[in-house]
Amino acid sequence: MSKNLKISELLDYYGLLLTDKQREAVEYYYNDDLSLGEIAENLNISRQGVRDSIKRAEAVMTEAEDKLGLVMKDKQIREGLAELRRNIDIIDELNIKRYRSNDINESIKRILKELDRLSEI
């Protein structure tokens, strides 16, 4: 995963742990692809101040992820949901080809509905 993507992801989860200036600097730098000079001008601070702010913000968010693991847990949950969906598709195909059970079909619909609900959280 690229550093830009990783930091953007961390920002989604842990951005509220940052000061307003840190969050703005990180958003400008990683999401808007602005230079340190452009960010310094926007935030009315020095380029070195921008750099320090971004580095501190990265450290705060990385430490939070190391302790809480929310990004990793979310990834694992999404992978698990995808695996469940693949297995439901296999069961559905088997039911269509072999059993033609309305009970299995209804159960599959309920499971898929719950998977969709969980995917939206």
Structure write-up:
By secondary structure, the protein is mostly helical. The chain folds into 2 domains: 3-68, Winged helix-like DNA-binding domain superfamily/Winged helix DNA-binding domain (Arc Repressor Mutant, subunit A); 73-120. 85% of the residues lie in helices and 0% in strands. The protein has 6 helices and no strands. The chain has helices at 3-14, 20-31, 36-43, 47-68, 70-99, 102-120. The chain is rod-shaped, with a radius of gyration of 22 Å. 15% of the residues are buried.
Task: Looking at this protein, list some descriptive labels.
85% helix; Arc Repressor Mutant, subunit A; 2 domains; mainly alpha; 121 residues; single chain
Protein topology:
Layout: H1 3-14, H2 20-31, H3 36-43, H4 47-68, H5 70-99, H6 102-120
Helix pairs in contact: 1-2, 1-4, 2-3, 2-4, 3-4, 5-6
